[in-house]
Structure formats: C-alpha cells, structure tokens
Amino acid sequence: MAHGSTRPTSRDVAQAAGVSQAAVSLVLGDKWRGRVSETTAERVRQAARELGYRPNLAARNLRLGHTRTVLLVVPALTTEFFAGVYTGAARLAARHGFGVVLYPSPEGIGPARDPFASAQTALDGVIASSMAADALTAIHGDQLPLVMLDSDPQGSLGAATVNLDIADGVRQVAAHLIGLGHRRILHLAADVPSWTFDVRARELATRIAETPGTSLRTARAPISIDGALTATTTALTAPGPRPTAIVSDDDKLAAGAYKAARRLGLRIPDDISVTGLDDLALATAIDPELTTVRLDAELFGERGMQALLAVLEGREPQGGDIPVELVVRGSTAPPSAP
Amino acid sequence: MAHGSTRPTSRDVAQAAGVSQAAVSLVLGDKWRGRVSETTAERVRQAARELGYRPNLAARNLRLGHTRTVLLVVPALTTEFFAGVYTGAARLAARHGFGVVLYPSPEGIGPARDPFASAQTALDGVIASSMAADALTAIHGDQLPLVMLDSDPQGSLGAATVNLDIADGVRQVAAHLIGLGHRRILHLAADVPSWTFDVRARELATRIAETPGTSLRTARAPISIDGALTATTTALTAPGPRPTAIVSDDDKLAAGAYKAARRLGLRIPDDISVTGLDDLALATAIDPELTTVRLDAELFGERGMQALLAVLEGREPQGGDIPVELVVRGSTAPPSAP
DNA sequence: CCGCTCAAGTTTTACGTATAACGTCCTTCG
DNA sequence: CGAAGGACGTTATACGTAAAACTTGAGCGG
What is the pLDDT of residue A3? Predict the structure, then answer.
C-alpha cells in the first residue's frame, strides 16, 4: 500500500534541483547539449535519482503521439514456437526502444476477437501471426500499421507479410521420404482452417502427384496428441495397403502418431516412418527422436518486427521467406520390404 | 501507410454530431443517464461509429491516473506452464477491464533485468512469477503494487504471495513411491537457485528422513532434456546400489531421465520408476506416460490476478496455497526384486 | 561601444480525455 | 405566481510531458 503517496513528477524534480520543468525534460531526454550546463544537468540527474523519478509514460505517449509499443497477436501459447516468435520480436524491438505486448487469441489459430480492447495500452502497430487476415483487418479497421506472419501474401489486404518457407520444408520432407523409398504416404493434417496448413497440404499433394508410383492419403485431427492418436489409429486400420510413412503437420501431431503406432504394435521407424514440423523440445523427448523441420521461431519474430519497424518508419519492408531446415533423426528409415 | 491521416479524436466526433466534446465523453463513457437525451446520445454514437473513433488510451490514462494494465513477469516461455499462468491471469483481468502485459525475463528463473524499461506502457501493478524477490524489488523500488507467485512468503518483503502447494505434491509423490515399495530414491533436481526448487528438495529430504530404510541421492541438471540426460546417466552409473525411482523437479527433466534410462538399457517402470512435476503435454507424449503432479497453471494465474486486484482496491489479498494433484500413469510401478 | 552570436536557461503551449462547475430552459408545486 | 428543481447540455480545467518560442546576459569583433 505504498502507492498512496503520489509518484514524483518532472515538476517535483525541477523544484528539487532548482530549475524549470523544461530543463528536467531536456536533461532526462538527453537533449541538453548546448542548452543546459553540465553542472546543472548533473544536479537534475541527482535530484531525479533521489526522488526515484520515473516519467509518466501515459503523459509522454500523449505528448509524443506514439507509444513505441506494438502488439503481437498469436494464436495460442501452447507450444514454445510462439514463445520463440515473441522472444525474437521483443529482442529486436528492445534494441529500437520498442516494447511488445502479447495477445494470445483465445480462439486459437484463425480468428481473433478483439485484441485491441484487451490491450489497454495505446499501440503503434500490430504483428499478427497465423491469423486470418480478414478477421484481423475487420477488427483493426486499417488504423494501425500491420505486418502479417505466416499468412497468405495474397489475402493479407496489402499488409506486409513475412513467412517461413514452409513449402520448402514440406518439399524436403517429401524428397527425404521418397528418397528412402516410401511410396504410400499418410498426411496427418491439422484440422484447422488456416493458410499455414493449406500450404503443407498443397505442397505435399503436388510432390506426390508429380512422383510416379506414389500415393497420398489424408487424416485430419485437431492439434493435440490425443486427437492425432485417434485420427491416426483410424487411418492406419482402414482397409487397403498401409502407408509406410506419416507426414505430420506439426510435432505435436507426430507425437500422437507415435502413440497410435505403438498401440497398433508398429515399430518406428522399422514398420512406419514419421515426420513432424516445428522441432519443439518434444521432438527429441520421444523415442525414437523425431525427424522434423526446424523452424527458427526467434528469427521469424525478429523478421516480423523488422518489417513492422520498416513500415513505421515509412520504408518498404523487405520480403523473402525464411529458410527452414530438415532435421533427420531416428523416426525415418527405408520402408521394410512389402 | 494509411496512418498518414491522423486518427479522429473525441472533438471530431463532437463536431460531426453537433455537440460538445464533453457530451461525447459522457455518452461514450456511459455516464450520460440524466445528462444527455437518448436521441443526442444515439447521434453521438452514430458519429463515433462512422468516423471509426477509438479513444486515445494515452490521454485517457493520463487523465485517469491509471492504466488498468498490469505486468506479468515470468521467467521464460519455454513451456506451456507459464502460458497457462498468463491465460488465467489475463482472463480474470479482462473481466475486470484490465489488460495484462507479459514480460518474459531473458534471464530465466531468478533474476529479472528491467521489465519496466521494456514495458513502454504505464502500469498499475505487477505480478512476478518464480522470481527472486530481491531482484524485483530492487528494480521496481516499491513503486507499484506487487504480487509474487511461486516464491518464498518470508522473503517477499511484504508483497502478497500466491503459491501452488508444491510441497504437498512432493509429499504425494514420495508417499506414492514409498507405498509402492521404493527405498532408494534419486532426486533429479533443477540446477537453478530458486525457492520453488528449494521447496521440492526440502520436502523430499524430510519425507525420506522420516521413513526408516529409505535413502536419497541428488543429481543436479540444468532444466533441459539434454542436461537431465547427462546428469541422470552419471548418477545411475555411479558405484553403489542403483536407485529404483527418480523424482524429477519437472517434466522436462523427467523426459531426460527417460532417455538416460533407455540408453542404459533400463526399462521404465520395470527397472526404474520416474516421476515428473507440471503435467505438460510432454508427460503424455513420452512412453510410458509419466506419473507426475498436475499444476493448474491457469488457476494459478487467476489467483495471482485476484490477489493483485485486491491490493489495487485496497482490500486484503487472501492467501492459501492452491492444491495440486498426483496423476499416476505408467512410469511408476513397484520395484523389481533386488 | 554597438550589434551579433551563443550559452543557458525559462515560459508557454499542445497532446486528448474525463469531469467538476456552471448555464439554460421548462415543468411543477406550494 | 415565484421559486425550486430537473433535463440537457456547455465551458473550463487538469493530468505530466516534450519542445517550440522566447529571454537574459556575457563575450567579442569591428
């Protein structure tokens, strides 16, 4: 309850130092070269220190007309991926004197109710990750500079987009599996309407279509271990020849596929190969370690922030997808003889 | 670049509606009963809608003297636990018209450099989770109402604390293992100076000490799967009789213990039992599923927020630890005959 | 010794909002 | 019929900061 005593203002500091409020602002704002003598400046700094002065951000923001704060909208915080995005964005932001406020959309990937109502703080811009562009623009009404992460460059209504080269990741996975000799692939797909998952499906379908002798089936599951377990079990017990490899939309789904395989008495990778996408901590916790596509979440967040800073400064944000990397571990091997 | 045109203010709305700025403030602030006629009010709302008016938060915050925004300081975002804490806190906050800004300390559990510099927004209060109280109070200088989560009630310098009943969780784990017949326990401890881990160590040591015939050894590891793998391997290959059960400080460490056991050719739970703490998604992804202590992260965050709201309103925050629950899965079983 | 420049400040203003204090008119009632 | 009060507003002000515009005095060259 130490907050009954009102906080000191720049005027209090001025009085303590025997100068005007303007002088305090000048000194503390580091704009005093040639305007205030070194001795006076030091006196001001001293007074500020003694009073424990902290500028009122609300007043500063009002005066300046900006807050140097941006909002990062993420679908959820249930994996360390978005934590990495945040970290990367916040780190670069801090170097430019910006803060990042996080809004994890309760609705998950796709919609986003009203991030701005929840952020009680005024914003200079928005980075939205894996969000449906229309949902977001409907909300923010084109008021704020916007950068979209992991979304359809076409559908983002003119906002800058920064993407991971997920298509290439899927390409690498497909090439890896086909190279090992796999022909019957099961796509364990996230049952969530989102561009990021559409890309995976489209790219995988394309690769399979252009490789003679290969076939593709799809199982859809909500993004959870249990959901993937159920969907995979159903798909693997369906009539017809069993797939020899499972391509999962992300690592969590892959973990579910592991459990399904185990319950069906299938050994990984001997009886069936499994791949993931993300390279979460999970990927090396399960046995065998998961062959997956490593996404550099922090770089991703950093590039998003970089783009937003460019927009804020009136520069053109530079595009270019962020490369991803296939990490081959123990969950993939040549298929056993049929 | 649609942000060249400056945003409409309440004055613009007033002009459009043909009323004074004060009337706009009254209507939009829902304080107009008996001050403005329904027709005029509707005209104002209409004008606001057409102009796409959004109040300037900085100005409002300055005027009101508070921001209805609090800061949540967490050690890191590398597991879904703190994501849950955030979610719980933010949900309750939203119901009270508060926003929550997240500051994941780059330093991890323990210190915290300068959350306030990074949060460019003015704050009404702070919730700090798993932080060293002294580090935090040194920074915020007792300026803001503070609630500490998961920290020493004694060492928190008068700030309210909200804790999970982790000691009871450890108690349950110990009782479970001892009940199964285990006598030689290995404590896989997080090598991080923090109250939350001290509690685990202390409680476990107490339980072992008061149970005749039992013995305890400790292995320390950084909180990562690989770190735990190394530390556990060392501990299990040390001379002397091998422990029959491993109590891990959290689930991630347990995952490392799994890998160590596997590499040493030990089967879980037949040759060795393993327990975790947290109940992350990881716990059910690994095989066998992990016996662990479920922490209700969202409730934890909610209770933290509840306490902070109490402090903000001058009420006494109510204490009481949050109960935790042992979840028995496949990673624990009676020890095999010696 | 006059006018100019420069250092070292101060005074003033604006940012956009919420609300206290103040006006009108119109109705109502003693 | 006069005063009181309600309905429906308006005007004025303060929040704390940053910075533009202004003041004062000293130093200095011509």
Answer: 43
What is the rounded distance in angstroms from the CA atom of residue B302 to the CA atom of residue A115? 19
At A206 the pLDDT is: 98
Is the C-beta atom of B120 closer than 7 angstroms to strand D? no
Give burial (CB, 10 Å; 0-12/13-18/19+) of B158: exposed
Other CB atoms within a 10 A radius of the CB of residue B84 amount to: 22
**A259 in contact with chain B, both atoms CB, cutoff 8 A:** yes
Query: Phi-psi region for residue A278, left (φ > 0), alpha (ψ -120 to 50) or beta?
Result: left
pLDDT at A118: 64
Q: Judge whether residue A59 contacts strand D, using its CB and a 7 Å cut-off.
A: yes
Predicted pLDDT of residue A4: 47
pLDDT digits (tens, 9 = 90+) for B158-168: 789 999 999 99
CB A244 within 8 Å of CB A273 = yes
Distance CA A266, CA B156 (A): 53
How far A25 CA sits from the closest chain B CA (Å)?
A: 17
C-alpha distances (whole Å) from B13 to each of A117, B55, B56 are 20, 11, 13
Chain A residue numbers touching B122 (CB-CB < 8 A)? 56-58, 121
Place of tokens 């995952």: B255
Q: What is the pLDDT of residues B170-198, one digit of tens each?
A: 999 999 999 999 999 999 999 998 999 99
Q: What is the DSSP string of A15-43?
A: HHHTS-HHHHHHHHTT--TTTS-HHHHHH
Domains of chain A: residue spans and CATH: 10-55 (1.10.260), 67-163+298-315 (3.40.50.2300), 166-296 (3.40.50.2300)
Decide: CB of B39 under 7 A of nucleic strand D: yes
Instruction: Pinpoint the alpha helices (H) of chain B.
Output: 10-17, 21-28, 38-51, 57-64, 80-95, 115-118, 133-140, 166-180, 195-209, 225-236, 251-263, 282-285, 297-312
User: What DSSP assignment string belongs to B256-292?
Assistant: HHHHHHHHTT--TTTT-EEE-SB--THHHHSSSPPBE
Q: B203 by DSSP, 3-state: which?
A: helix
Alpha helices in A96-224 (DSSP H): 115-118, 133-140, 166-180, 195-209
Residue B161 pairs with which residues in a beta bridge? Answer: B148
Tokens of A280: 């979460």
CA neighbor of B91 nearest in space, from B298, B278, B310, B319:
B298
* Torsion sign across C-alpha atoms B48, A136, A78, A222: positive
Residues constituting chain A: 338
Which residues are B215's β-sheet partners? B184
Question: In the predicted model, is pLDDT for residue A165 greater than 80?
Answer: yes
Kindly report, residue by residue over B58-98, the tens digit of the pLDDT: 999 999 999 999 999 888 778 889 989 998 998 899 889 89
Task: Decide if B329 touches A, using CB distance below 8 A.
Answer: no
- Of the listed ranges A19-23, A222-226, B334-338, the least confidently predicted one is B334-338
- Residue in this structure with the two tokens 């899965």, named with its chain if needed: B329
Q: What is the mean pLDDT of chain A?
A: 91
The secondary structure element, H or E, covering residue A298 is helix A297-312
For residue A155, the model assigns a pLDDT of: 75
Q: Enter the DSSP assignment of B157.
A: T
Mean pLDDT of B203-230: 97
Task: Tell me which residue in A54, A90, A282 faces B143 most closely, judged by beta carbons.
Answer: A54
- Three-class secondary structure of residue A100 per DSSP: strand
- Cross-chain Cβ contact A143/B285 below 8 Å: no
In 3D space, the residue among B88, B107, B83, B120 whose CA is nearest the CA of residue A82 turns out to be B83
Is the Cβ–Cβ distance between B139 and B114 less than 8 Å?
yes
